[in-house]
Specification:
2 copies of one chain form a homodimer. The first copy, chain A, is of the alpha/beta class and about 200 residues long. Chain A has helices spanning about 1-5, 10-15, 25-35, 40-55, 90-100, 130-135, 150-165, 190-195; strands at about 60, 65, 80-90, 105-110, 140-145, 170. At the A-B interface, α1, α2, α3, α4 and β2 of A face α1, α2, α3, α4 and β2 of B.
Chain lengths: ~200, ~200
């Protein structure tokens, strides 16, 4: 490999770039050669931005979301409903839910899901801190917004057992047909769930 | 945007990553969040590798290929045929031709193609240095290995006019059907060229 590129520097950059998800060695080489053709500053800005982000990024002490300060913008926003916690796997899920604009409560980012197959147990993700938050912050509703996978369902089940207490409502995201989906092309599982979970027709 | 991510550091990394070719803002965010989940060293190695490569990479003084020293491994390999120059657009073309294993001559990397539409003239790419190399290095054959586009053809035509001299053979890559292609599915232009350029059947 090293002789193939005849440049250790290029070789190293390609090796590092190809560690990124979805970037194979060919794409990595394409990206590296692209950066070599750009003004020097473009490559340096990129490299420095990656290093700075990884070294200095802050996570919210309360909800573990990415933040610009100790307590994130959502947690410190007094106009939000602080008695409702939406439990998600990742920071991206927070962004996705925020972009819908329909949720005005706060969040709790687990940073992963329970996955015995990958050796990830409850102690490896932010479950304990959630269990403590619920009574301390006087939470009235915990919304489990986890992916409908084995890991997601396992984690949701575990959390529901741990946080359960009288007066606390535990909910999960509604399952059903996508808004633009057609019945004919909807998979059976989804269609079945949308029948079981049918709602009153609004007139 | 900044408020959407609630972290200037993440914001900046996403902005820089999305400048890469083929990387939209969504992929950039995915890459950035991936790097945040990795050990700190992974992200730092990547950032530093990009910076080091761009700041310190060396190009061969003779053929302009990426190199680990002033004269690249191919130019300094005495077992190669130094009277045959293969003219290519990019470093990637050198790699592609090297990986075939059939070429034993040397190279000249133009670093681009003449493209009046993009304001790129002969003086913007490494044509003058090629014109000087041919007599100085006593070259016997110039192989024009440029893409069959308007820019490639224009550049090939221009170079052929500039380097022309008695005793110098100028060749171009053969055009024809791909090795695994079927006649039925080959486009007309390629099929036409493969008829015009038909070769003696080897028995």
């Amino acid at each position: 490999m090293i002789t193939r590129y005849d440049s250790q520097l290029l070789q190293r950059a390609v090796a590092e770039l190809s560690k990124l998800p979805g970037v194979g060695e060919k794409s990595a080489l394409r990206l590296a050669l692209h950066l070599l053709r750009q003004p020097e500053n473009t490559a340096i800005s990129l490299g420095q931005a990656i290093i700075d982000m990884r070294q200095n990024v802050i996570y919210c002490k309360r909800c573990h979301n990415i933040s610009s300060s100790e307590i994130c913008g959502i947690c410190s926003d007094s106009s939000r409903d602080s008695e409702r916690i939406c439990v998600v796997e990742t920071v991206r899920d927070v962004m996705a839910i925020e972009s819908t604009g329909v949720y005005r409560g706060i969040y709790h980012v687990l940073g992963g899901l329970i996955s015995p197959a990958d050796g990830i147990g409850p102690q490896d993700i932010e479950i304990e801190s959630l269990v403590q938050r619920v009574p301390r912050e006087n939470i009235k509703e915990v919304i489990l917004a986890l992916n409908p996978t084995i890991e997601g369902d396992t984690t949701a089940f575990y959390i529901s057992k741990r946080v359960k207490s009288p007066g606390l409502v535990i909910t999960a995201l509604a399952r059903g047909m996508s808004v633009s989906a057609e019945i004919e092309y909807t998979d059976e599982l989804t269609l079945g769930r949308s029948i079981e979970g049918r709602t009153l027709f609004e007139q």
